[in-house]
Amino acid sequence: MIRKIFLIFFLILFIFFIEYSFERKIPKDINTELLYFPKGENVKYIVSGFNNLLADLLWIRGAVYYGDEKIRGGKFEYLYHIYDIITSLDKRFLNGYIFGSFFINYQLKNLKLAIQLLDKGIRELPDEWVLHFYKGFMYYISYDFENAYKSFLVGSKFEKNTDRCKKFAYMSLLKEKGVQNLLYYWKEMYEKSNNIFTKEIAVEGMKECIRYAMKKYERERKKSPKSIFELLKEKYIPFIPVIENRMIRIEKGEVIW
């Protein structure tokens, strides 16, 4: 217990001593924040097993850095380095990967570094669906819908109490291919695959295409289609999907199979 208290005290002094020393020795017009964050592998030898504690302290220091840069209109040039060090010290720090990638992409406009940080998190926490979701979302808002779809699809395999990844996967493909081509894409996927999981995704994908066409019909015609045949007749869909001798249809405003 005494050793732990001493180490906490030492770590706090260590960080403030470094800041004080550098602020005295380095000209004020040089951004010194990067110098406060030594490499993660070097710090591990100093903290002797208390990596998470130092990661928490640096997490707070990183927030201060972000606030300072935001107020003075800084360049945020050390954002990646800060979050890279934090997640090197605590490899299972989920929020470090999530918030770090968000700030990097938002402030630096650097998709490559944001994805790099998320990939680092995925290597450490491959079953965390939210990391795959944010990776897909980064691609999505950058209009890279193909890679967004791939990331969302992987994440959907780990979702348990939500289907957010699955929905965004459909939306990504919809934007990439358009509803007409996408309906053919899902049908071909179903017919060529022997995997139950893939077939389920394909069926849901076809149903999602019909839902999209139905909503578009309602927006443009100011009424609901009476049946799926009306969508076909008015060319909102290229064909009516028939799966295992069962037709996807519209009943009481719901798309069912």
Strand order of the largest sheet: 1-2
Roughly how many Å is the radius of gyration? Answer: 25 Å
| Count of discrete domains | 2
Strand residues, percent? under 5%
Task: Kindly name the structural category.
Answer: mainly alpha
Give the integer mean of the pLDDT values. 78
SSE string, helices as H and strands as E = HHHHHHHHHHHEEEE
Number of helices: 11
Largest sheet: 2 strands, antiparallel
Low-pLDDT runs of 5+ residues are 5-10, 16-31
Q: Quote the distance from N terminus to C terminus.
A: 63 Å
The helix fraction, in percent, is over 70%
* Counted beta strands: 4
The coarse silhouette is elongated
InterPro entries: TPR-like_helical_dom_sf
Protein name: Tetratricopeptide repeat protein
Organism: candidate division WOR-3 bacterium
Would you mind describing this structure in some detail?
- This is Tetratricopeptide repeat protein.
- It comes from candidate division WOR-3 bacterium.
- This protein folds into two domains: 125 residues; 112 residues, no CATH class.
- About 9% of the residues have low confidence.
- The strands form two sheets. It has a two-stranded antiparallel ribbon. The chain has a two-stranded antiparallel sheet with strand order 3-4.
- The chain is mainly alpha-helical.
- It is elongated.
- It has eleven helices and four strands, in the order αααααααααααββββ.
- The N and C termini lie far apart (63 Å).
- The longest helix has 29 residues.
